[in-house]
Amino acid sequence: MHARRDHLPFPWRHHACGYCGAAIPAGHALCALVPDSSVIDHEDPSCDGRRHVVACGSAHLDLLIGQANDAWIPEERWLGQLCRASMQPGSAGATVAQLGARARMPTDHVRRAVLWNSRREAPLRALPGGQVLSAADLETMLGNR
Ligand SMILES: [Zn+2]
Q1: Residues 6 or more apart from 22 whose CB is under 8 A from it?
Q2: How many angstroms separate the alpha carbon of residue 37 from the centre of ligand 1?
Q3: Taking the model in full, what pTM does it have?
Q4: Which residues pair with 50 in a beta bridge?
Q5: Is 125 helix (H, G, I), strand (E, B) or coil?
Q6: 65 C-alpha to center of ligand 1: Å?
Q7: pLDDT tens digits, one per residue of 23-57
């Protein structure tokens, strides 16, 4: 029994354009590393805030880069940093302010991240490590400024 062969030698290596969805023949994809405030690398913080995009041509690559730049929300990234800190050993009973200190975040970033979360349509009620994100925490932080 013969496997059916396509014209293209390595069909599994094709990418789809991140902008238009078109299949890109192998060897013709254009790639870029773009900012993405929702990306938190749990292994390596130096890889936070970036992701790869693939496009069918330079016009769509430029559009993807523009979209990524427009979508950047600093508070989203700071909240991600708090989420990562919340899961580290010894963080179980920590306050949000303590987690921020452990993540070496300026107090203002912690405050803005918590405030941004509270204004989202579906805010996190607790960090992944179980620490509750309460309005009282936010007021304490505001009071300490
Ligand atoms: Zn495209």
Answers
A1: 16, 56
A2: 23
A3: 0.78
A4: 35
A5: coil
A6: 13
A7: 998 889 999 999 999 999 878 888 899 999 999 99
Distance 27 CA to ligand 1 centre (A): 15
Separation of CA 141 and ligand 1 centre (Å): 46
Domain boundaries, the chain: 12-71, 74-143
The per-residue pLDDT for 6 is 44
Distance CA 120, CA 69 (A): 20
The string over 40-61, giving b where at least 16 C-beta atoms fall within 10 Å of a residue's C-beta and e elsewhere, is: beeeeeeebbeeebbbbeeebb
Distance 58 CA to ligand 1 centre (A): 9
C-alpha of residue 120 to centroid of ligand 1, in Å:
31
Expressed in angstroms and rounded, the spacing between residue 55 Cα and the centre of ligand 1 is 5
Tell me the Ramachandran region of residue 52: left when phi exceeds 0, alpha when psi lies from -120 to 50, beta otherwise: beta
pLDDT at position 137, please? Answer: 61
The residue to which tokens 């078109």 are assigned = 22
Each residue's pLDDT tens digit, 64-74: 999 999 999 99
Nearest to 41 by CA among 20, 33, 55, 69: 33
